Amino acid sequence: MNRFEGKVVIVTGAGSGIGAATAKRFLAEGALVVLNGRRKDKLAETASGIDAKRVLLHDGDISDETYVAKLVGDTVAKFGRVDVLVNNAGVAAFGPILESTTEQWRKVMSIDVDGVYFAIRAALPHLLMTKGSIVNVSSVSGLGGDWGGSIYNAAKGAVTNLTRALALELGSQGVRINAVNPSLTSTEMTADFENNEPLVAKFKDRLPIGRGAKPEEVASVIAFLASEDAAFVNGVNLPVDGGITASNGQPNMTGLV
């Protein structure tokens, strides 16, 4: 499939995890891809083996609005347009609210929320010209609460509802915006979590599919939402969660009743 032949795609947080898998998916489908992340060496790993004419490696901090304006400006200078924006970059903080710090709160909000806002605002004039699309990477944590996850829940809840509000605002102007809401996905950010076997076992007990996601499985849904195959999909927060949001929260009672 070459659904994105000649299209220009910006992916934030493209150095690892879902972002790296997403950048590779768009490249495999013919896109010209701008890879953002904090570390240029990680971005180079993602783009390894790809013709340099098809990629732009752009290291920087998306919580800095001046940098984000440069990211979009350099994209247009190199490729002439923007067709798709994937807001993937994010960080997390967990623990009881009384043990949290102002620094943790501001770091999560600056990247997970401010970064999304800055990128959309900077890219939108170009997306309006191309009738492009935006895909935000939210989380199931943006659809409901998690124990010890108040800061992350607040940030991803903001992304979830920003997606809905902008779908109302932008749809009639030809720009679609949707979000994916993954559950447990194997990435660098979840490495410590995945090494906690009792915690992983409890989490997997809630997952009807019986495992966490691979980054490539989330990337394929992002590519679908950005493509013309989803031309009538707008304002959706799509759980990519193995069925976890199908549950009413009760424990697995199989074999007990």
Short description:
42% of the residues lie in helices and 14% in strands. The chain has 257 residues and is α/β, with parallel strands linked by helices.
Q: If you consult CATH, what is the topology?
A: Rossmann fold
What is the CATH architecture term?
Answer: 3-Layer(aba) Sandwich
The structural class is alpha/beta
Question: Could you tell me the mean pLDDT?
Answer: 91
Outline the biggest β-sheet: 7 strands, parallel
Domain count: the total is 1
Order of helices and strands: EHEHEHEHEHEHHHE
- Computed CA radius of gyration, to the nearest angstrom: 18 Å
End-to-end separation in angstroms reads 47 Å
CATH superfamily: NAD(P)-binding Rossmann-like Domain
The order of strands across the largest sheet is: 3-2-1-4-5-6-7
Beta-strand level of the residues, as a percent range? 5-15%
List segments where confidence is low: pLDDT < 50 over at least 5 consecutive residues.
Answer: none
Number of helices: 8
How would the global form be characterised? globular
Q: Quick one: CATH class?
A: Alpha Beta
Protein name: Meso-butanediol dehydrogenase/(S,S)-butanediol dehydrogenase/diacetyl reductase
Enzyme class: oxidoreductase
Family: Belongs to the short-chain dehydrogenases/reductases (SDR) family.
Organism: Granulicella aggregans
